[in-house]
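Q: I have 1211 residues here and want to know how they pack in 3D. Can you give me a structure?
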Amino acid sequence: MDEGNNNDNSILNNVARAIAAALDWNSTPDARKAASFYLESIKAGDIRVLANTSFLLVKKDWSSEIRLHAFKMLQHVVRFQWEEFGPSEHRNFANAAFDLMSEIADTCGEWALKSQTAALVAEIVRREFVNLWQELLPSLVSLSSKGPVQAELVSMMLRWLPEDITVHNEDLEGDRRRLLLRGLTQSLPEILPLLFTLLERHYGAAMNELGRQQLDIAKQHAAAVTATLNAVNAYAEWAPLSDLAKYGIIHGCCFLLSSLDFRLHACEFFKLVSPRKRPTDDSASDFDSAMSNIFQILMNVSQDFLVRSSSAGAAIDENDYEFAEYICESMVSLGSSNLQCILGDSTTFSLYLQQMLGFFQHFKLALHNQSLQFWLALTRDSMSKPKFSVHSSGDGSTASNADSTLAQVDNAKGKILSFLNDDICSTILDISLQRMLKKEKLITGTTLSLGVLELWSDDFEDKGDFGSYRSRLLELIKLIASNKPLVAAAKVSERIIMIIRNLLNSPMPVQDLAVMESMQMALENVVSSIFDGSNQFPGGSSEVHSALCRIFEDLLRALLSLNWTEPALVEVLGHYLDAMGPFLKYFPDAVSSVINKLFELLNSLPFVVKDPSTSSTRHARLQICASFIRMAKAADKSVLPHMKGIADTMAHLQREGRLLRGEHNLLGEAFLVMASAAGSQQQQEVLSWLLEPMSQQWVQIEWQNNYLSEPLGLIRLCSERAFMWSLFHTVTFFEKALKRSGMQKGNYNLQNSSKEIPTPYPIASHLSWMLPPLLKLLRGIHSLWSPFVFQRLPGEIKAAMSMSDVERSSLLGGGNLKSSKDTLTFVDGPQFDVNKEGYTEPNEADIRNWLKGIRDSGYNVLGLSTTIRDPFFKCMDVDSVALTLIENIQSMEFRHKRQLVHSILIPLVKSCPPDMWEIWLQKLLHPLFVHCQQALSCSWSGLLHEGRAKVPDNHGILTGSDLKVEVMEEKLLRDLTREICLLLSTIASPGLNAGLPSLEHSGHVGRVDTSSLKDLDAFALGSMVGFLLKHKSLAIPMLQISLEAFSWTDREAVAKACSFSAAVVLLAIFTNNADLLEFVSRDLFSASIRGLALESNAFISSDLVNLCREIFIYLCDRNPAPRQILLSLPCISPSDLHALEEALTKTASPKEQKQHMKSFLLLATGNNLKALAAQKSVNIITNVTARPRSSLNAQENRIDEGETVGLAAIL
């Protein structure tokens, strides 16, 4: 690299001008593009020209921007083109790079240039470690002793050196990584003492220079300390802990914890070493000793902070709190990973727990939230039963080792539990219960003061969301309740009774309701944990049982004594009674009182609300009715003696007209839950009692003829508001009845279907009268979207067919937006407007809610009915079902097609018995796939080639900006695409293809005996994919969708299409069907390779490569297409293909075969398969930057951080 052999100056100047133009945003786009193209041509040209030019451009004569870019080009050479140099050139390149370090140091270059220089030298050392490191080390030591700038540069280089170990890089071969790790580990006796020396030398020098007011020199020494700490942290994750202790690194970082300028960087070291895993070799005792020392270091710092924090006169600023948060984070890591190091020392362990309790109690949310992770992990581990696998190997030593391990675990848990006494658990519960409330929920001036606690607020950043935080608190409460039931019961009861008393004394209790609301979930978790049936209570100690019952009896008595009539208060009280459900299971004497109270609350609220805006009353009534469902679930058989009383009360309220249909449905659902605990006979009787009154109206032919006999009849129905909503409530109850009265849903498994003893569904006998009118109703709704009917609809109904604001917001990524306060979502039920009975004429929103509700519940009713199997498939008329679902498929909007596939067709495909496939699948799936293939192909073509999806949902998304409309259209397209591909994936699921053989049994390296091939018909009964492929008219659109999906930029859809394609490949391998063989060998093989060209398929590239592997290995001998396709790739030769075939025949490992195929495809396409290239870029080495600090430390951090430069910048 001699400067006397420089290339022509014109190349040098051209490259400099190109860099300047490419980086100058004042340049025209064409100029920047031309400059970038020229620079790429230089990088792709003569490597020596590139290296010489770059070395010249990093000199100080050029601007910083040009020098930085030249460093990137040098790093590119080392990383990607190093092997093109010879040994002597390697040596010259390394010497020139090392000389740059001295030059940069002498000129006191800016941080970015120093970082790039260090990164370049580190990259060279990594490439030539064995040959270069021992030779270079003395020069580094010598350079570091010359001054603070030189020491900073050496530390930077040492920081980058182990990056290939700490950051996974797929490009780095395993052997090279192992060599680097071994070499660096062997060099730790030289590296770590050097780092300690630099820390000690430059920290002392910085303090001395600061005392002499030599600020500029002090800053240089401070920068050296910071760089050295960053280097130390690069070794903290993997260097043996004993070495970090032996060579003073732990001691040095401990000392720097007392320095305001460097303590946060020192914290980073302890954060990295705290979770290190204990080795199993002879170094374990040294590890324990070092880790115990780290415990002491951090505990001393924590003790100092907690003492100062609790002192009234102590001055603690935000810097101190930030430092304490980092210390607490390391303490949590220590306790979660290495508690065994101090568990044997009772004094130390007790002090550690007290300190972690101090952080948990701290008023600062950040500290509390950090320690919450520790307490949650500790209680999970100590209060849960260990899980061990039992192997019947007959190996006595294995069993002995397992017993020994189990004994050790139990011993450790016993020690921990002995320290988790009632006082600690009581304190944890106290704080947890107080912190269940969000700050925004509190009304200013609330009478229920929570002291100085910093409650969760939306203003807090980087802490997740309140829901996740509250879930962690609730889990902690539940774990403690399971181990300390009396403590938990007393605490939660005491606090709730205190809150009730405050509310009773409050002049405006509704305003103070937030605290009461916050405690309901805590009560629910405590009660369910104690009375969940798996706990030793109440089957354990009778004294404990009695004490628990007294506590909850007192609490229940307090709740039942409340005479609240305000809707908000009634609703909260109902939730509290829900939470007591599991207690009622073991205390049945109280069930009657709770039922009476619920009816009392229901009757306290007016059932007819004249003003629709006051929906809180209606909402509260529905919630009270829903409480019967929750109580029936939790209290189980304790409710059975009261079923008649509930039924009589319901009948009385109905006779008096004080129970609306929606409320009746909820109470009816509660009855179904109760009946499920009583047995099948009781279920049958309850169902008949509930459904018989509905059937009398539902089966009447008059309303069907009036409203459903012709498409425009629905216009008349929408004008009959009361009858319209009566139909809605009937359909929704059918849905509830199916969910509550059927067996568990599951995939239909062909292997087990013939052996199953059919168990009657309680609701099966009712399907024959439930479904026919529903099919007519749904057919009428579907017809509204047909062009002929739509043109004749009144404007109000046309407007109602558009999407709601909630649906549009969801499509735009707005989340689960509530349209209004009167929208109520029930478990297992649709979302509907609760203000739809008893007033107002139908309007646009009213009709829209009704259409959506009928579609949602109607689809679910049909889908759930299919899971009953024989009563549905053998009794229903397939033509009627097909007419309802498919007749208007052409005019359906994408959102409705997706819903139809999801709610009806996927359950139908899963449940359809094999002997009914011929009747049902052909009739339903053929028109669906034919239409969806055309619609999806057209829409995706528009999106990919014109930038906008062509979606027929014009009723819903006419309003809004063009950009919003495009976003909604694309979301609708992706949703339908994923659902159709999910249907294909379901068709290919193992349970529906039990007759499909496995490749594992086909012989070595996939050579299938052609004499064993079968006709496709042979698989038609044992494989749904085989059955459908046998029907060519149905198979063609299915296969076309699976092919085209690989080119659609939606990885979820591609993943599902891959599973279907994998089953198709198996059938091609094991059958003698020529058409299928040709399709898989040519079309599917090339489509899989094209799919790998899309970056969006990076995360499922393994599945695509596996398809290529299976097709090539198993079919290339039967069809020439796979070889022809591979030979047509741009960067391949016949010898390369021959080498691939040889490599594949040498291994029977699918994993190794996939790797061979992946490497070959990358080579054959010139690294242009973006799905595979993207995988690499995800794992590319980047600069290790320190954890971002707050703005409080901005000035100090600028010394260290700078901009993102170094190895990351070349990519």
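Q: Anything worth noting?
A: DSSP finds 56 helices and two strands in the chain. The first helix runs from residue 9 to 23.
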